[in-house]
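REVIEWER CHECKLIST
Item 1: Sequence provided? yes
Item 2: Single chain? yes
Item 3: Sequence as submitted:
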Amino acid sequence: MEITELNERIKEESAFVDLLLNEINKVIVGQKAMVERLLVGLLGNGHVLLEGVPGLAKTLAINTLASAMKAKFQRIQFTPDLLPADLIGTMIYNQKDGNFFIRKGPIFSNFILADEINRAPAKVQSALLEAMQERQITIGDETFKLEEPFLVLATQNPIEQEGTYPLPEAQVDRFMLKIKITYPSREEEMKIMRQNVLNTELKVNPVITPADILKARKLVQDIYIDEKIEKYILDIVFATRTPGLFGLSKLTDMISYGASPRATINLALGAKAMAFIKRRGYVIPEDVRAICPDVLRHRVAVTYEAEAEELTSENIVQEILNKIEVP
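Item 4: Structure as written out by the authors:
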């Protein structure tokens, strides 16, 4: 398909993005980057990990997204006494007819908000992560496919808090994006205060269906990505593994290990989803740069030397982006 033709088609088919954003913005004030990244996760078929202090509308954002989409939504509060069965469901004995029947858990939804994922023990985390990876659940000897679209939005406490079980790196890698949420601006907070003090009932209308999202995902895969941009993505990822080869020798002792091939895949997918949101049929370097910190911040591990110099993985990713030549 010709680029111009593809571009026209994407422009036409991505019209729902504006409708969706308008509905979400009725309720969510500010947080434009978070809402955009949620859509990237949804269109790129990847899960999202959110980190931020309480009260920044993390739950509200995904609830609003589900309402604007006619989709099933479940919020699961992760606690230290949660069991895998509380999440995926269990077999229950029916005394009347002497048989076991399966009661499905809250995971059987389109949107799952795993609130404070690092509050629950490893068994529960691994049950959720298996569902994220395999898109299926096994209860007893029966396996159930999860309904698509299936998006997990997990929120995480900053690790210093007591009573948390930090997610192992291999599990964190399963999340397509890790978004850090910051406080709203003064003007935005004024709007939030007025909106809530007046207690205005803000109704979100469903503007699209899950079927529309599945169709859009196929279109996202068709978006054109030039070989130069593919090489740019590889340069960024390889610079996290061997910074010395890219003129970043000072970072060699700062990185204990770089990003995995999952990062490369998610950078390409995220950039395509970004192009779709911007209603373009092709990827530009700016799409890669915009999504890069969210794809890489949880995939680059820093050394003690970096911590001593107060260098975070974000600083390292930024240095790499500043150094690697943009095509």
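Item 5: Key structural point noted by reviewer: The chain has two domains: 31-211, 223-323.
Item 6: Recommendation: ____
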